[in-house]
Amino acid sequence: MPVAAGTALVLVTYVTPMATLAPTSADLGTGATANAWILSAMSIGLAGALLAGGLLGDRLGRRRVYIGGLLAVIVGALACAAAWDPWFLVGARVVQGAGGAAVIACGLAILAHSYPPGRERLHATAVWGASVGGGVAGGSLLAMALDIGTAWRENYAAAAVAGVLLLVPTLRAIPDSRAATPRRIDIGGLVLLIIGMVLLVSTLTQVRDGVGLAALLLALLTLASFAALWLVERWARQPLVDPDLLRHPSFLATTLGALTLGIGMIGMASFLPMVAQLGFGDSLRMASVPPLIWAVTSMLASLALRRLPFQLQGPLPIAALLALTAAGMLTAVGADSTLWLLIPMSLTGITNGLLTAILGRESVASAAPDHAAMASGANSTARYLGAACGITLFAVIAVNTGADITEGWTNAVLIAAAITLLGAAVIAAQSVVRRRQDSRRGLAPVA
Q: What does the pLDDT look like over 333-357, one tens digit per residue?
């Protein structure tokens, strides 16, 4: 399935710096600030362009926008492979993220258009969810296999070649679709969203040097940007996300669930290879094993979802799986070797795989078919906005707290698990309140 293969390629490029940051840093002479930006740059590109990719797909044709996104991923990978400066690499990663946004948003909408609700769509979204885990696994395997030469440029070059090989089958197999009544693109809202995200990541990165004047100024600019975004969206004729969709309980649960997963688990998984290499003294190959285990278990769990004798749908299963994810994360506390980390990564891989497939399916099911790409883009925006914040926050805490990086890692895990539990509690509370309100009105509960 070309859509699944394209999604997997995006995730391969997404995880590349997680495994190769140490040799990248040594080769380019980067410090902690540049490293944090290298890790989070593609998340910023993804979060900033996912809504735009979804809206453009609904308006111009999802196949056309998907192909354009795949080309941007290839160009970005080639630019990364040729990077001579850390900030050029950051810019190329943002380009990859923007291209990946079009692939992810339009890819899931193409599946929703191609497969009717029920068992067929469940099967398709389970395979799509597995492709996310497969991409992470592929990125880890690629890093292990290409631990040669610079040990990082080769990974980006290989991803570019894989993208070129995907172009022909993608052009042949993907059907075109678009909305019968497409929404207008809110340019002002999109610009403010991107500015706000860049400022937010900048603020979190600056905090590593202490809460000084620069950090406070960035924080104020971040608040001002999001306040302006709120005002613009409030008065826009057609805001970035349909207001009716924002009132849908399942969409709210999937959006908050994706944001929570990004901040907590993705932040933890992103920094793990760095801890294994710098904290435990392991090689790149050994440091890539826990993320690989996480990705493989995630892929298998996504595929297993379609074979469960019961359906996991609605806010409460999302909340329960997030709570189990937090419990799995806590088993990493006190880890003193990479082998120990195989336990938490296996446990969280299972819940992550189930969540990825459920969140993708529920997000497009919440919207009308005309707006499937917009709903998919909004849900993935929350995931990668959370990832951008989580990666940066995790790196800041791990590097700047504790006597060494392993103690700082433990502190970061505790905070990330607490955030994940909080997200689970909010989703569960929202679901319970909604059910009680529906019960009082004599309505059937909304999934």
A: 888 888 888 999 999 999 988 888 8
Neighbours of 168 (CB within 10 A): 10
* Composition of the chain by helix, strand, coil, percent to 5: 80, 0, 20
pLDDT digits (tens, 9 = 90+) for 43-55: 778 777 777 777 7
> 35 near 188, Cβ under 8 Å?
no
Domains recognised in the chain with CATH numbers: 2-186+238-441 (1.20.1250.20)
Indicate the pLDDT class of residue 442, thresholds 50, 70 and 90: low
8 A C-beta contact, residue 47 and residue 381? yes
Read off the pTM: 0.73
Give the pLDDT score at 438.
Answer: 63
DSSP 221-245: HHHHHHHHHHHHHHH-SS-SS-HHH
User: How many angstroms separate the CA atoms of 147 and 7, rounded?
Assistant: 24
Instruction: Kindly state the DSSP code that residue 328 receives in the 8-state scheme.
Output: H
Residue 435 confidence (pLDDT): 72
Give the contacts of 427 (CB within 8 A, at least 6 positions apart).
253, 256, 257, 260, 315, 316, 318, 319, 322
pLDDT at 109 (0 to 100): 75
DSSP class of residue 174 equals P
Backbone dihedral region of 401: left (phi > 0), alpha (psi from -120 to 50 degrees) or beta?
beta
Q: How far is CA 178 from CA 109, 118, 314, 361, 366, in A?
A: 9, 21, 27, 19, 18
SS3 118: coil
**What average pLDDT score do residues 241-248 get?**
69
